[in-house]
Design a protein that fits this description.
CATH superfamily of the largest domain: Nucleoside diphosphate kinase-like domain
CATH architecture of the largest domain: 2-Layer Sandwich
Shape: elongated
Strand content: 15-25%
CATH topology of the largest domain: Alpha-Beta Plaits
Number of domains: 4
Structural class: alpha+beta
CATH class of the largest domain: Alpha Beta
Low-confidence stretches: 239-272, 344-360, 486-500, 568-578, 625-630
Number of helices: 24
Number of strands: 16
Largest sheet: 4 strands, antiparallel
Radius of gyration: 29 Å
Mean pLDDT: 81
Helix content: 25-40%
Strand order of the largest sheet: 3-4-2-5
Length: 630
């Protein structure tokens, strides 16, 4: 080994990351501008833990001298998904986009600026699907309509970093991160953007970002795509080559113009000629996100909305009381077990939808969400910080902190916990989150001879069902607006209620991959004689649904009024199914029948803090058989 290699090896073994990242304090200062900052976590490890030397010249050629392929490579990770949820090929397509950027030397010369850019990309929940350090000739910029800084006018100019991102609304998010190319404008309109912080002038841009679909596609092909060799050989690349993280696929052979009809005699020899792909994506996987009892139900809509905005597709919901054993299986830290599993010694039975029991003042239930996304486990840390940031922006963190009786800074581990999905873990939490009662076991007397609250001045229970892929994108946002803003002064004649603010109370919610025929018949807003009835049944039976149960005084009138004022975000629904995106039960009788098909009594969990009329209700009856039970 040469002296140079010895010195480099010694440097890698004796130098830690913290020793070389001298700009960490500055980066932390820039990230503090966020409502709940996503600070970089630098592990105290040496470079030798993840970097090694290789003096083999052939290894260098194999790593850097190969041409780029023409196709994307899909890396199949070890992440698992729940097979009984929605189709893995259709789920998690939450307006996924591919964005493209060229980072110039004006940005690359500052390690702080590069680290800041990558940290913001990580915090946004986007995947880096392309990353190439290139040394382009000046004429290459003219052919790609890129206007580089002045340092690239020389024949041997500096390098550029071609960066491609993949994820929901990737282009808009990347534009927000980088900011306008005009530095003066960026410092006025986007003062926290990379351009505003590190830019010097408009003539010396930090990066180039194409915006139109056609332009992004062209730049991706130009900077990441393969090239036809001078001898006319077309190396097609490998759509999904065999590797440690991928399964064997049918290979695509290289073709020569003169031998297009001839197949390679040896597939292994042909594989050596196939260049690797410069753009990659990953398969989808599931995670289980658990919100602790410190997160109140009226925030559940915001939690779901934040997950959806970050590209996580909802695949299941469940409210449950965690036991210490379940918390241990989930990997909840020992110091947080009491938060996720509060004591049940002094609790009073919850008031269910069907029984007249007072709800407990101490909340014991967690919310478990089954979520799906590409490369899901990689984005868990950013998701937790994103949830905390969303709660901070809405002013909910103070309420959560007061409920925990803590004056220290609220950590994400007190509110949320996320783990990769496994079949055994799901079974530990009770199995499939989307299980519904067997309709054949529902006695007829449950659906008949019942008294319903039809007076607006009485508490009413109403079901709101979101159906369709487009509706799922805005379901969390609409639910949050209903729970957070769906209350107002009621001009009631009853003196007791005239000064009360009446919010909605979320009793329970459930996600289903599709509705059965019986459920669809009860949910559709159309009557049998309507020509849209059969079409609505077919639509409800072929699309996912989120069923929410809400309670409030005058619930039907108020919810109908709120839904008229709310418009789904980015929703483009055809006229034939537009009325099915949000279906509200029309009468108390309909709400009761629907609830009996979707839920059992133990699914309903009251929220006393959102039920101001509770103190005016009579005390629950005392049942002798319940004495001694906790």
């Amino acid at each position: 080994m040469s002296l140079f290699h010895q010195q480099v090896s010694m440097f890698l073994s004796q130098t830690s990351l913290l020793d070389v990242i001298w700009w960490k304090a500055q980066l932390d200062s820039h990230m503090q501008n966020q409502s709940y900052p996503f600070l970089p976590e630098i592990p105290p490890i040496h470079f030798s833990h993840f970097a090694t030397l290789n003096s083999d010249s052939m290894a260098l050629e194999k790593a850097f001298a190969l041409p780029a392929g023409f196709y994307w490579q899909t890396v199949e990770t070890d992440e698992k998904y729940f097979p009984s949820s929605s189709d893995i090929r259709e789920s998690s397509n939450m307006d996924s986009e591919v964005a493209m950027a060229l980072l110039f030397e004006t940005l690359l010369r500052s390690p702080l600026a590069v680290h800041h850019t990558l940290q913001l990309i990580l915090a946004s929940g986007l995947d880096i699907c392309g990353f190439r350090l290139l040394y382009p000739q000046p004429d290459m910029f003219f052919s790609s309509t890129v206007t580089p800084p002045s340092c690239y006018t020389q024949e041997k100019g500096p390098s550029v970093l071609a960066l491609s991102l993949r994820g929901p609304r990737a282009r808009g998010i990347l534009q927000d991160i980088m900011g306008p190319s005009d530095v003066q404008l960026a410092r006025v309109t986007d003062c926290r953007s990379i351009s505003a912080i590190y830019g010097s002038s408009r003539s010396e841009p930090l990066a180039y970002l194409p915006h139109m679909d056609s332009r992004v596609h062209r730049e991706l092909c130009f900077w990441f795509g393969g090239r036809v060799s001078c001898d006319g050989t077309l190396h097609g690349g490998v759509p999904n080559p065999v590797g440690e993280c991928s399964k064997p696929r049918l290979p695509r052979p290289s073709l020569h113009k003169a031998d297009a009809d001839q197949e390679p005699s040896n597939l292994q020899d042909a594989t050596a000629l196939w260049p690797p792909a410069a753009l990659v994506s990953t398969t989808k996987g599931d995670i289980i996100l658990v919100a602790s009892p410190a997160v109140p139900p009226h925030i559940y809509g915001l939690v779901i909305s934040t997950c959806t905005q970050r590209g996580f597709a909802l695949q299941g919901t469940k409210q449950l009381q965690l036991s210490p054993k379940q918390a241990h299986v989930l990997g909840v830290p020992a110091s947080q077990v009491t938060v996720f599993c509060p004591s049940m010694a002094s609790c009073i039975p919850e008031r269910s939808l069907l029984e007249d029991k007072l709800p407990s003042q101490t909340r014991l239930h967690c919310l478990a969400l089954l979520l799906r996304k590409e490369n899901a486990s990689h984005h868990v840390s950013a998701l937790l910080k994103g949830l905390m940031s969303a709660l901070a922006e809405k002013g909910f963190l103070e309420d959560i902190q007061s409920s925990l009786h803590s004056h220290a800074e609220l950590e994400p581990s007190l509110c949320f916990h996320a783990v990769p999905y496994t079949d055994s873990l799901l079974q530990e939490l009770g199995g499939n989150f989307s299980v519904v009662p067997d309709p054949s076991n529902i006695p007829l007397e449950v659906l008949h001879s019942r008294m319903y609250a039809s007076e607006p001045e009485m508490e009413q229970v109403v079901l709101l069902t979101f159906t369709g892929k487009e509706a799922m994108k805005s379901a969390g946002s609409v639910l949050h607006q209903i729970l957070a803003l769906g209350y107002r002064k009621q001009h009631a004649q009853t003196p007791v209620l005239e000064d009360l603010d009446l919010p909605f109370e979320l009793l329970t919610l459930k996600w289903l991959p599709c509705l059965t025929r019986i459920q669809a018949k009860e949910t559709t807003p159309f009557e049998v004689g309507d020509k849209r009835w059969q079409t609505s049944i077919d639509a409800l039976m072929s699309s996912p649904a989120l069923i929410c149960v809400l309670r409030r005084i005058g619930a039907f009138v108020v919810l109908a009024d709120i839904l008229k004022t709310l418009t789904p975000h980015n929703s483009k629904v055809s006229s034939g199914s537009g009325s099915l995106s949000r279906v509200m039960s029309s009468t108390p009788e309909t709400a009761f029948r629907q609830a009996a098909l979707f839920f059992t009594e133990k699914d309903f969990v009251g929220d006393p803090k959102r039920r101001p009329a509770l103190k005016y209700l009579p005390p629950p009856p005392q049942h002798p058989q319940s004495e001694g039970k906790t």
